[in-house]
Design a protein that fits this description.
single chain; about 150 residues; alpha+beta; 7 strands; signaling receptor activity; START-like_dom_sf; Bet_v_I/MLP
């Protein structure tokens, strides 16, 4: 099994980034060109839950959707899931992703490190490593600290 990871520094606290990632309503509004909709289709986000991601036009030529089964949750810190449906499941098995959010030491109230890590096995010898998935995930995370929710009136 292979691994790949990447990280970005966000100008928001880790707790806020975590809450944004876990909330279907918020995450679906951050960058619709990349992610049109996230939805828990079974469960509440705890281990065993299923979450569907419908991806936007910016990456739809690579992946249109992804169904994920949540395996492990460290509240406020990280979530690990295995892709069980969509294009990635046809290229890799397993395809297990962990998103984590950690405060930046000394600047915990204002910054965090968001990390994306994948463990994967390719289904065919000519399947490339998931560089596009990593770049898309990190590109999406980069929008977290630019997102301003619209206040309800």
């Amino acid at each position: 099994m292979e691994t790949m990871k990447g990280e970005v520094v966000l100008n928001i606290p880790a707790e806020k980034a975590w809450e944004m990632y876990r909330d279907d309503q918020i995450i679906s509004k951050i960058k619709p060109e990349m992610l049109v909709r996230a939805e828990y289709i079974e469960g509440d986000g705890s281990p065993g839950s299923l979450r569907l991601f419908k991806l936007g036009p910016a990456i739809r030529n690579y992946v249109k959707e992804s169904t994920e089964k949540i395996e492990k949750v460290e509240n406020g810190r990280s979530v690990t899931y295995r892709v069980i449906g969509g294009e990635l499941s046809k290229m890799y098995d397993p395809y297990r992703v962990t998103f984590s959010f950690a405060p930046v030491h000394g600047n915990e109230e204002h910054k965090c490190v968001a990390e994306w890590k994948v463990e994967y096995g390719t289904l065919t010898p000519d399947t490339p490593p998931p560089h596009k998935a990593r770049d898309a995930a990190l590109g999406f995370l980069n929008w977290f600290d630019k997102f301003e929710p619209v206040a309800a009136t």
